[in-house]
Amino acid sequence: MLNSCGTDDIDELRSKIKILRLRLAVYEDARVQAKYKITMAEMIERLSVKARKQVELELKVCEDMAHAKHKELTEALSELSKAKELLYQSQRLLLGSNRVMVQRVEDHNILGERA
Question: Measured in Å, how far apart are the chain's first and last C-alpha atoms?
Answer without folding.
Answer: 162
